[in-house]
Amino acid sequence: MSTLGIVIMAGGRGTRLKSARPKVLHTVGGKLLLQHVIDAALTLAAPADIHVVIGHQADLVREAVGSTGVHFVDQPEQLGTGHALQMVKAAFLASGITPPDNLMVLSGDVPLIRPETLVTLWTTHQREGASMTILTAIPPSPQGYGRVLRQASASPRVSAIIEQKSLSAEQLAHPELIQEINSGIYVFHSTALFHCLGELKNDNSAGEFYLTDVAALLVKEGDPVVAVAADSVNEVLGANTISEMMHLDAAMRATTAQHHMANGVTIFRPDTVIIDSAVSIGPDTILEPFTQILGNTSIGKGCRIRSYSVIQDSTLGDNVLVRNGCILDNAKVGDGALLGPYAHLRPESRIGENAHVGNFVETKKTILGDGSKANHLSYLGDAVIGKGVNIGAGVITCNYDGVNKTVTTIGDNVFVGSNSTLVAPITLDDGSYVAASSCITEDLPAGALGIGRSRQTTKEGWATRRRAGLAASRSYENL
Ligand code: UD1
Ligand code: CA
Prior knowledge:
This protein has about 475 residues and is of the alpha/beta class. It folds into two domains: about 5-235, Spore Coat Polysaccharide Biosynthesis Protein SpsA, Chain A (Alpha-Beta Complex); about 265-450, UDP N-Acetylglucosamine Acyltransferase, domain 1. The chain contains nine helices and 41 strands. Strand 8 (about 145-150) and strand 9 form a beta hairpin. The longest helix has 21 residues, at about 240-260. The protein is elongated.
């Protein structure tokens, strides 16, 4: 059985993006371009058999995807896709490791490629006994892509790939002459590829060593070069410009939304909703327009996420209502909880079952127990709050003294009156009660009342006398 290794070309500058970030570290569908391609490659090969060519801002790329365990091949100067493969050949020679019989070459900027299609490419390559098998497509516009010239229209055999920049005047004027494009994804017989790489020339308008020139070189040697078309055009589209990336992003998110709808999730106006690929959502959950569900988020059954909420890396139980305009980041929310409108759950917020976090309430690194309520205008930071607690409007945990963050601990069934400040570190034991507008600086034992404010003074008749005085002085001024 012949062996297969995978090369991912990710060294290029991405000049057309006009971005400070390397192209392969841009995201579509909430995932890095290169991560998409590595994930596809991992369905066919072990990390040690995947070789990622890096050049432009190589350190950033290495850091971003290093945890996948893939190999990296340096391409210090980026002299074209053919040169990228020359670096791979040199790396094999230098290491003394025998290359696999075949190399599948993927492009770091063609992210929608499906594993099934790579399997088709690989089986076609073996069946045809080819030296090079090219994955192709016929998109609505071939503009910008290399064109695949077949030896005869119905033949799988290819005679050459012609780069966009090398098209003749006639071919440019009549794009319908060659509609089939090169996806930049191939399988090569390694020996045949390595043999040809040394013969590549850079005497073209881009001054680059084109990997695509290998096709004609192999044909000249009498080697079989074949083409196989992908089932869908979208999966072979490249991401060379921001506009192309956003096109792929929309396509990917549309597919994701369809997948969730097929599993019983209602998505109103799915074209306005942004769902990342790793998200899971239970049936009977409803997403309203303009919601964003990002990162590693999991949402249970029967939830409703109202418009303009952004939920990132969070876990929601069943039957949670997230009202409009909530922001959740790395939060955990129990079954039946009610959030918002305009609640902000910052990292490490743990909201219990049937708990409420209402209007303009911010939580950070806080546990709010089952059935507890903080309905209005609060900041709860570094707090451990028990069950059945009522946090009145405007309550603030003072968790920061300018140097250290300290914890507020509140037992079960505590009532904290409105507009109170709890100066941490502090403990309010089970069933204790804080009078409204208190500044609490000392621990409260179970069942106690804490009042921390000055006593009210009432001056009988004062307001009436003042109003009368003001009215008199005004009538004097008007004389
Ligand atoms: C390439 C193909 C073109 C095909 C298109 C499909 C060549 C010469 N042309 O064109 O036929 O239709 O892909 O998307 O191959 N890279 C390196 N090192 C380099 C240059 C590029 O690693 O020196 C990497 C890039 O990071 C990128 C990939 O190779 O991930 C493709 O390079 P790019 O410049 O985007 O090629 P295209 O012009 O799109
Ligand atoms: Ca490209």
